[in-house]
Amino acid sequence: MRTIGRILARHGLTHRRTGRYEAKGKRYPALDAAHPGSVHQSDIVGPCYIGGPVRFYSLNTIDVATGRCSTEPVLRGKAAVLDALWATWLRLGLPRYLQVDNETAFWGSRRYPRAMGKLIRLCLPQGVEPCFIAFAEPWRNGVVEKFNHLWREKFLGRVPMEGEEDLVRESLAFEQRHNRQYRYSKLNGRTPFEALAAAKEPLRFPAQERPPKWPLPKPETGYYHVVQFIRSDARLNLFGETFPMPPEVVYEYVWATVDVGRQRLCLYLDDAVIDEREYRLR
Asked: What CATH number corresponds to the domain at position 186?
């Protein structure tokens, strides 16, 4: 791994963007994360390696309002990421919105764009609305992306681990240490647990400890959302299926909501409805 790192550095491939993101003058339809459990941001980090040798991913999740984190090792490949998400909910609670990027482990397969992938099928019966950020714009999940850097620096690069048991134990210890001890200026100097206590708002939790067994049935109600920047071709790409957009939304961010109960696709620009059409889920 050190040799690979030196080679990448030699060719200038390890540079990270520095400084604050500079907006391009386009309004992005961000979620309101004012209360605990309003919005969780999740991201898959990896593959990572520790002694043993052990290859793993980590599902990192942040409750945006309180800064509480969950770090859940995924040891059996990305297919196990949804069991990790269920374990996350048992500790953080169920969010109103779960914001993720366009990793295929989250939304499914381009071959079946209307089949509702595993994440959507897991979320909707729990009253959780998945929201997929714009393509190739990871800063839209900036809270968890910043946490990922902290996790790599303070945990992966510092804590000695020699196997799966060490990884699981130390991941939970780091999570608890972060939530109890780390103080953030955005929380007025409070820790994540102190911010949660100050909010005095109840959290929702799954009704059972074990995750649902696969395959999951297709939900009959609920919503999921996709944010996308419409380029010059005036097309919205919804998990591989494209739809024509009106010319006034070219070079704008469009919020697309799939209403599962009504089998409708609703499109918004700056909170105004620009189109609504039938969207039969398969």
From this structure: 3.30.420.10
